[in-house]
């Protein structure tokens, strides 16, 4: 996620993420582990483009270390970074995501 932020492709906050989804920019929808079910439901309802959705293993206060504010809804606005995040979050805990040799 820090790479997404450094690249300027991490969208933070419910309204900004919904705007990003409506504009077709969001490629991955992320939720903090402690975001409310109501907020998740509202964001998913806005996800008419079938954007992949992942729950993060981090709480809003932990995400605030990266974003400088506690946020429960985030989006990645780059297809390659979204794929990298999907792979990283799918890796077993404590094991980094490994690229397959070409």
Layout of SSEs?
Layout: H1 2-6, E1 10-12, H2 14-22, E2 28-31, H3 37-46, E3 53-55, H4 60-67, E4 73-76, H5 79-90
Parallel strand pairs: 2-3
Antiparallel strand pairs: 1-4, 2-4
Describe the structure.
Helix 3 links the parallel strand 2 and strand 3 (53-55). Helices cover 43% and strands 14% of the residues. It has helices at residues 2-6, 14-22, 37-46, 60-67, 79-90; strands at residues 10-12, 28-31, 53-55, 73-76. The model is unreliable at 95-102 (pLDDT under 50). It has a single domain, classed as 2-Layer Sandwich (60s Ribosomal Protein L30, Chain: A), CATH 3.30.1330. The longest helix has 12 residues, at 79-90.
In brief:
With 102 residues, this protein is α+β, with helices and mostly antiparallel strands. The chain contains 5 helices and 4 strands, in the order H-E-H-E-H-E-H-E-H. Strand 2, helix 3 (37-46) and strand 3 (53-55) form a beta-alpha-beta unit.
